[in-house]
Amino acid sequence: MTPVTNIKSPQELAELKQKALAAIENGCTRVLVCGGTGCMANGAPAVFEAIQKEMEKQGVKIKVDLLDESKEDAVRLGYSGCPGFCQVGPIVRILPSDTFYIKVSPEDAAEIVEKTVKNGELVTRLLYTEEATGEIFAKRNDIPFYRNQVNIVLAECGIIEPEDIRDYIAKDGYRAAAEALFGLTSDAVITEITESGLRGRGGGGFPTGVKWGFTRKAQNAKKYIVCNADEGDPGAFMDESVMEGNPHALLEGMIIAGYAIGADEGYIYVRAEYPLAIKRLKTAIAQAEAANLLGNNILGGPFSFNIHIKEGAGAFVCGEETALIASIEGQRGMPRPKPPFPANSGLWGKPTVVNNVETFANVPKIILNGAQWFRGFGVEKSPGTKVFAITGAVKNTGLIEVPMGTTLGDVVFKIGGGLRTGRDFKAVQIGGPSGGCLTKEHLDLPLDYDSLKAVGAMVGSGGLVVTDEDTCMVEFARFFMQFTQKESCGKCVLCREGTKRMLEILTKIVEGRAKLEDIDLLEEVATAVRDGSLCGLGKTAPNPVLSTLRHFRDEYLAHVVDGKCPAGECQSFKTYIINPEKCKGCGLCAKKCPAGAISGELRQPHTIDPEKCIKCGVCYDVCRLGAVEL
Amino acid sequence: MSQSTTAADAGSTARRQFERIQAIIQEYGATESALIPILQKVQEEYRYLPEEILTFVATALDLPPATVYGVATFYAQFSLDPKGKFIIKACDGTACHVRKNTAVIKAIRQKLGLKDGEKTTKDMRYTLDIVSCIGACALAPAVVINGKVHGQMTADKVTKAIDELEAAEKGEA
Fold this sequence. Notes:
The complex is a heterodimer of chains A (about 625) and B (about 170). Chain A contains 25 helices and 22 strands. By secondary structure, chain A is α/β, with parallel strands linked by helices. Chain A has a five-stranded mixed beta sheet with strand order 2-3-1-4-5, covered by helices on one side. A five-stranded mixed beta sheet of chain A has the order 15-14-18-16-17, sandwiched between helices. In chain A, β14 and β15 (about 400-405) form a beta hairpin. In chain A, α8 (about 185-195) crosses α11 (about 245-260). Chain B has a four-stranded mixed beta sheet, covered by helices on one side. Chain B contains seven helices and four strands; from the N terminus they run ααααβααβββα. The longest helix of chain B is centred in the N-terminal third of the chain and has 22 residues, at about 5-30. At the A-B interface, α2, β14, β18, α18 and α25 of A face α2, α4, α5, α6 and β4 of B.
């Protein structure tokens, strides 16, 4: 691939855009294999290779370089970012017809190339079928999962090749930066962002423009832009997908922010658990530097800006901005009291803006389309869209983007497709270990900052974990407490000791050793930790406990008073036995048991040794006769 | 110095190690802000952070050894204990938890003969790390075996995956 080098002016950028766009929209077929973490793990590389081999075998000309004029009529094959619908991966998308193939395996490659790539026909069995109605969808945008979404941040994810800067430029990439740097004053940029009403997508929801305004006013020759990409919430992967699928959008947002506040240097703090995102960001930075979109005198103008990557080392608390700053400086990632806020004293004591990935990715769109356009989405006090990662017991897992204020019910049932288990919806944990749970009574609740806050939950980073009747809410709260207890940095006594004590009590409850007064004690400790901790981690750590106590107190009581786990999940209340009347002695369970706990003669009823049994439930799942009982 | 190695051994390995460490420090620069990247690189080389190397890094960066030790023990990514030849990372994110990863983790422990709290097998062959969310939530429960993500695991599938790894090893040997 010939690199894009040294674009000398906004004019040259516009010319390159026209050229790249024409090359993309020349009517030739394009094959995009999803290159997101999910699909890559699910076998996308093998699919890619198989398609490439088949194209060569069947004599289809392949174009690797977008601007290769000798191959104008060739098919372009590449990896896209994550289109979000991870549940049905690996995904192969064919343009311009926008054919959307799901669960593709290498064996399908020959047919895809023969039928779709060469002749424009559909391979029906690879199309998405709506289970309930049997309806088949050929195009991405018709699928119910996508139909009910509005894509601003994710608009280019899955359409562009993240490792080719020209793809991004063709989609108006860096035009917002050019317009800001050459056509707007710093104050005008801040006014536009403030008027758009954009609020921090990392969870806090602080108005981005106001934050920028404070930092701009701070008197200092050196200022920094920091991108918080330490997406530590378990069950959340939206920032990962943006970095993997459209890394240049993040860089562009940071450049504009740098220009607005007067910073010439930026850091992206990415968690080390995202190796693919780090790789794509590094590629994107190198390409932007070569193209003169990063570095000294961007696009030939007076503004200079450099971006560095800092890899996190595994500490959830580093999602808190002051802890993150300490970590970039090379110290233990411990939060410090605010004020002073980073806007006045941040990285190395200099004025610093800290925003998360999704916030920065919104910025170029707002500059291009204007604040009023952005306000056209979402609700009055929370304009725009929000990306959520929806996982758990729901049918369609993946990444979704909806206008702020979309109701919980629409997200779970219209987009998520309802529960995959055939069980009843029980609750949604929103905002990860710091968030709260929403129940059936909240299905009509609009998802935006203020509505969620009013019911004691929060948008958080946007993780939505759906649970069904089979999930024990006490065990669920215990799981989150185990997480926050492990991740507490230890600075505040209440958080350090309180999370430990809460975990002990919750463990006692799920193991059936608790007394009634333990529940009161739990509530008391939770309140104390909430009120007595310095940073967001401690302040919100009791949220899962408090919100499950509020909505599912009867489940707590069932464990303590009746000695039962209503969801049937807690293992202390559970024993597997084989019903000798039903068992035909096929030996399947004994073969599958990972603990070797099942024994018996062939064609004779088997038995489970309770000492050896690890209660994994494999025997229960494999028995065709239903002889394994609880 | 670790007491498990003999003095002579420690002498020659240490010299070799320090040359490599010196190169790493030069690559990132001997400043405090480079401490975490340096430790990450060291761990990549040795699969853990040997104590004598921590002291060496502290001297080179002109930091108290306590500061370096503090950073090394603060972050989950760093290990002060040697790790096994094969590393199995079981994701313990929410989505994996909701989709019953506990059974998967128990099956791995059972298969490798690891007691609760043990991370590495006695023969130094396997290390089991329970890690926070790896971002493959849609494939929950997920297990990373030797850097490869295995999605939608069950107790049965993970046991098989380890068997396959063993079989492949034997085939190569």
